[in-house]
Amino acid sequence: MEYDTENMNSDEIYSSLRGVTEAIQSFSYRSQEDLNEPIRQEGKRDDAAGREGVASSLGSDPRLGLDAVEGGGGRTALDNKTSLLNTPSPRSFSGPRGREFAPYGYGETICSYDKTAMKEAVFDDDVEQFRDGRRQESGENKMTLPKVFAPALSHDHSDLVADLLKELSNHNERSEERKGALVELLKITREDSLAVWDEHFKTILLLLLETLGDKDHTIRALALRLLKEILRNQPARFKNYAELTIMKTLEAHKDSHKEVVRAAEEAASTLAGSIHPEQCIKVLCPIVQTADYPINLAAIKMQTKVIERHAKDSLLQLLPDIIPGLLQGYDNTESSVRKASVFCLVAIYSVIGEDLKPHLALLTGSKMKLLNLYIKRAQTTNSNSSSSSDVSSHS
């Protein structure tokens, strides 16, 4: 089941997004049976047969529950579940009583980690944010990776990844081991191992997105860091899963822990540069119009980054979808949303110029004046930047 987002309008995108939040919530590795059979077989399954089976199941079971997709064998069932990687409706984010991004109770103490492993495998400058300031690092506190992970890259990657995925499926359990598994996956992600991604991409993505709801906020943040690295190194593989990945990344901006929000912001920024611009815009437009704060703010910021790399002709065609949400954001009660909306309009102007003006007829005089001020400021900044570049090139 794939989205033809290039030929869909906002309403169709909005309709296609509906209901998959329930699918993600219902998707859970309740037992190890799905992963007991070698995961490497996943890439050899008949994808066409899997899609056909899921299509018929979806038609008969609107709940999108597990019963609708379970097939004969464990791996066939898991392959079918990956076909549910459609995007949840932005309605799940809207409404005055939107649920908090806290599906589980948070503990006051967090698990410790192996600082050495983190430094060599994760974001060197960001590793400190996973530190528990209330506990001193000691021999007892250090995380010991399971023996199967210790040799890491010296063994066959496919076998190692299969073991890592089994460990990651222990949701809300074995926190230290799952942190170790995420660290090892970060190492593998930074290597050029196409065979691993050919076989395991869908399973890794499913587990990562489900891990974003983990009760341990350090694991949620690590999952987002890993997602960002995969986006950097394997962007083309997200084409059929862009909608879901965008939605889950934006939802993570509601997290109560700052390090998770920061990781979500970085992942969203990477998403904006990794997914095809038109596909991103068509997913983001209905979210901008319907989501509550802070998800609408995150969506507008991501949309701005996408627009900055958009071609003029295709952007002109998308304006009827983009502008209403930005004008709505310009009236938002949150000042940060209003400011982000203005910046996005400025980004549009920098791409299409005066062709933007006819779409702004609904703006009041004062708002138009403020927008023009920001446009001129951006032009001055760009002009100064260009002049500096010219001087540098001739010096």
From TrEMBL:
What keywords tag this UniProt record?
Cytoplasm, Cytoskeleton, Repeat
Q: Where is the composition biased (Polar residues)?
A: 79-92
Q: Which domain of life, per UniProt?
A: Eukaryota
Q: Where is the composition biased (Basic and acidic residues)?
A: 31-50
Gene Ontology terms describing biological process:
establishment of mitotic spindle localization; mitotic spindle assembly
MF GO annotations = kinetochore binding; microtubule binding
GO annotation, cellular component aspect:
basal cortex; cytoplasmic microtubule; kinetochore; microtubule organizing center; mitotic spindle; spindle microtubule
Q: Where is the TOG domain?
A: 148-384
Q: Which Pfam families match?
A: HEAT_GCN1
Where are the residues of the annotated region Disordered?
Answer: 29-99
Put simply, this protein is called: CLIP-associating protein 1
For this UniProt entry, which segments traverse the membrane?
Answer: none
Q: Which organism is it from?
A: Liparis tanakae (Tanaka's snailfish)
Where does it localize?
Cytoplasm, Cytoskeleton
